[in-house]
Amino acid sequence: MPRQPSNMHTATALAERFALGLRGDGSVEIHGVGTLAGAGPGQLAFLANPRYRPQLADTRASVVVMGEQDADKSSETGFAGVALVAKDPYAAFARMAALFEPQPVRAPGIHPSCDIDPSATVADDAHVGAFTSIGARSRIESGAVLGPGCIVGDDCVVGAGSELIARVTLVTRVRLGHRVRIHPGAVLGADGFGLAMDAGRWLKVPQLGGVVIGDDCEIGANTTIDRGAIEDTVLEEDVRLDNQIQIGHNVRIGAHTAMAGCAAVAGSAKIGRYCLVGGAAGILGHLEICDRVVITAMSLVSSSIREPGEYSSGTGLMDNRSWRKNAARFKQLDELARKIKGKPKQ
Amino acid sequence: MPRQPSNMHTATALAERFALGLRGDGSVEIHGVGTLAGAGPGQLAFLANPRYRPQLADTRASVVVMGEQDADKSSETGFAGVALVAKDPYAAFARMAALFEPQPVRAPGIHPSCDIDPSATVADDAHVGAFTSIGARSRIESGAVLGPGCIVGDDCVVGAGSELIARVTLVTRVRLGHRVRIHPGAVLGADGFGLAMDAGRWLKVPQLGGVVIGDDCEIGANTTIDRGAIEDTVLEEDVRLDNQIQIGHNVRIGAHTAMAGCAAVAGSAKIGRYCLVGGAAGILGHLEICDRVVITAMSLVSSSIREPGEYSSGTGLMDNRSWRKNAARFKQLDELARKIKGKPKQ
Amino acid sequence: MPRQPSNMHTATALAERFALGLRGDGSVEIHGVGTLAGAGPGQLAFLANPRYRPQLADTRASVVVMGEQDADKSSETGFAGVALVAKDPYAAFARMAALFEPQPVRAPGIHPSCDIDPSATVADDAHVGAFTSIGARSRIESGAVLGPGCIVGDDCVVGAGSELIARVTLVTRVRLGHRVRIHPGAVLGADGFGLAMDAGRWLKVPQLGGVVIGDDCEIGANTTIDRGAIEDTVLEEDVRLDNQIQIGHNVRIGAHTAMAGCAAVAGSAKIGRYCLVGGAAGILGHLEICDRVVITAMSLVSSSIREPGEYSSGTGLMDNRSWRKNAARFKQLDELARKIKGKPKQ
After folding, report:
1. CB contact under 8 A, A256 and C201
2. Is the residue at C132 inside a domain?
3. What pLDDT shows up at residue B75?
4. Catalytic site residue from A178, A183, A249, A256
5. Which of A250, B20, B35, C166 is the most interior residue, by most CB within 10 Å?
């Protein structure tokens, strides 16, 4: 089973194309990528984290992209291959690795099995895979790719160059910008969780808003983004959401913010730009987080954050026996503190 | 792109239809809804939370539904538009907003692409969208709507007036009551997680039960509800589950309970009526929670709850530096408590 | 609606087939299974947990599988039915219950609606259900079952005897071993969450690896397993994942490990063999967990674990008022500890 396409690039060609320094024989041919430890001849690896520097001596990679400092110290590191020199070796590697990524064929055209509403429009150069439904008044723009099994409901837009990998659902009133990438199982534009208790029964509050996704956003597998109750749920440009994230109705996420898997944001929260939200972190509704805030994994944000910085909640991991003792004491903590501070119990 | 259908209702007509008081010119025409801050002429807004009262002075909404107290104080609040007066303005708004909700066309009939087992029955007035499968002995009742891409396995019932928005999977032995609403990506009736360790390998325990969903329940996008091991997993009537909730096998959830996104309930837990479970909260298996219990977000319920009330676990959010210090001390908490209480370490 | 097929087995036949002891009339006919409390005549129940021993007296089950001790004490327990005697009654029950599990008909062959790339291969005796896509160079091996609505991308393998229940997505370079079972909504082989910040924007790092799933693994509904960045994400044999679990790129999970619903594992974590990970537990990236580690529900593993045993984090559940007081004190914990230990504040 071919794992990588039959691409070949010389070290010289890579250095020129990506404006990198070159140390060693530029004629060496690269056919794929690998890790420092796992790569073989004909492969490109990278060194970004100094922790892996000792692996340079033994790597079988033909070419390694690294920082200038590492390239200068080849006598110390014992690296005998060809070095490509980059200011940011990881970013340079990412760009070069893209050359070796197998791309599924997505020829323009609409698969004959599709069910497309007569009022929908699909650009001539868009690809629409098998078993895809497109609803009333929706628009698929130039170069967009809809993999198999997608459902695009009414009044949606898939912007130019966007890609729904497969089995993505845009329920209704979802507008994607350009170059948005959505992974399988994601559901955008489902009803927000709006309920009013009325005479002992739940009354559903209609969800009349939509979802707006900015350019260059990426949405992970099985992530859900509800549409707004009245106004829209909004992701600004270049927001990156990992898998299984839940975004409630009327949330707004600022540009360039990234969230790791299983994070959850309740309705009407506003998150700033360049934030990093750790895995399975929770953000309560109707609060605001300013720009450049980092939330560590599994922390719960229960009030607004006005200062950039890193925030956490929870406790550290312990062996269960010790944890039980300490957790039992947590229930007495206020009482203990009163003893220490000499205040009588209220 | 039309965001709302061409509905028009006068303030007088709304007041009569929903039994509301009217202050001002009842002939004003309403074409849609908005927030107090965002609505324009021809739109209906609401005031339920006193926090938003200051917005009354500046709202451009033609009509605002509000409580009697607010309607009486128009000189103070500066509100110059038409007021609809309701005992519960939010519920009244929810009912009126439904008039302006665009409804996708779901004409009765079965899309020709569908794959329906000959032993299944589909009511004449049900709608079955494209690329839907219906298995052996399953029954789709009157007025039910199955959007595109649904999979209904064997021995299932979709009750009268129920709606599977799109791409919903009912695996096997799932029986929905009337007017149940299920959002895309939800999976009901998959195997429960039943395993026995046997000679160093996992042995699968067959999951022979089903899932029973009561009338008027709502199930969010990508939520999963496993079928029972022997008996059924049960949601009583009017249970409301948000997105990405996990319900283990043989769980029972009482009527009118609502759970926010990403909550998880382990097998055989029994949850009472009128409970509210916060986002990403966890409930361990084989325990009981009585009626009218509130669990706050991300709390873990690890033993049965016998008294109504609000329950929590976890710690508050801190800047990471302070958190690290305090979390380190948590690991010494039992030792510290012994010091305070003067007991020697065991 | 028939809940169980028309199978019949006598107690004698079951005893012989599964090498169990028999006490009582072996000619009694069994048509299905039930719980001790819920079973009726003609049904088989089991007693594994001593907590349920009192139910033996009143059970209406015709046959109960139990341990030798319980079988010996029928005068004490008041059990009057037929006993099957097993060393491990739960495992014996699991094996017998499988006889009564209704199996959907999955005849060999490819449904005419499917969209299969000409370079893919499907074994003659495999079943491929409606609306399934199979991509380039993928291989469906002997006896494999693909339920309706599955998507198998390029360069995938579905090993012999494996079953994708319905609506499973294998994105690309996913190789399943033999007898793997995957539940609806699961997504394997989506892009890992690889990003580099580059001049103020996110740069996507290509995800060139695949996913390798060992023999006899089971993957729950709506679980996601990303493909590796360079090398593969790997589950060894007999790994059991419940619903809505997130496995990041390049994670490796050892044989026979089981994880409960909503657990999340970040990229490049290595988990040992025979581990048990509780519901909604989190495991940070790039760490190692040795064999036979138990993580309790909703705990966060933030550093490597080198010793087998049970580990926990978090705090216990309290009524909200007490919790608020204690959680407030947690924020002063370092200060309090310094007071107790007599050290001045740094």
Report:
1. yes
2. no
3. 82
4. A249
5. C166
Where does a domain end: C50, C76, C100?
A: C100
Whole-number mean pLDDT of chain B?
95
Strand C169-172 versus strand C187-190 pairing type: parallel
A126, A225: one domain: yes
Instruction: Classify residue A1: in a domain, yes or no.
Output: no
Mean pLDDT, chain C, rounded, equals 95
d(CA C77, CA C194): 60
Are residues B82 and B136 located together in one domain of the fold?
no
Share of chain B above pLDDT 70, in %: 97
CB-based burial, A14-37: b 16+ in 10 Å, e otherwise: bbeebebebbbebebebbbbbbbe
Domain holding A160: CATH number? 2.160.10.10
Is A2 domain-assigned? no
Query: Same domain, yes or no, for C336 and C307?
Result: no
| N residues, chain B | 346
The whole-angstrom distance between B315's CA and the closest CA on chain C is 5
Same domain, A25 and A122: no
Nearest CA in chain B to A151: B148
Give pLDDT, residue A6. 58
Say how far residue B99 (Cα) sits from the centre of its chain.
21
Q: Count of domains in chain C?
A: 3
Q: What is the three-class DSSP state of B155?
A: coil
The average pLDDT across C45-56 equals 93
Residues B82 and B186 in one domain: no
Q: Which whole number is the average pLDDT over A123-138?
A: 98
* pLDDT at res. C6: 58
Q: Closest Cα of chain A to C94: distance in Å?
A: 31
Domain around C30: 9-100
pLDDT of residue C75: 82
**Could you tell me if B125 and B22 lie in one domain?**
no
Quick check: is B249 catalytic?
yes
Among residues B100, B131, B163, the one where a domain terminates is B100
Q: Enumerate helices (H) and strands (E) in chain A, giving the number of each.
A: 6, 40
Provide the shortest C-alpha distance from residue C300 to chain A (in Å): 6
Asked if residue B4 is part of any domain, the answer here is no
- Out of B90, B324, B337, name the one closest to residue A332 (CB): B337
B45: CATH: 3.40.1390.10
Q: Which of A259-273, B47-61, B95-109, C41-55 has maximum average pLDDT?
A: A259-273
Q: Which residue of chain C has the CA closest to B230?
A: C34
C244 and B224 in contact by Cβ < 8 A?
yes
Could you tell me the pLDDT band of residue C1, with boundaries at 50, 70 and 90?
very low
Residues of C in Cβ contact (< 8 Å) with B204: 94, 98, 218
Chain C residues closer than 8 Å to B194 by CB: 94
pTM surpassing 0.90? yes
Q: A165 with A305, same domain?
A: yes
Same domain for A125 and A180, yes or no, is: yes
**pLDDT band per the 50, 70, 90 thresholds, residue C5:** very low
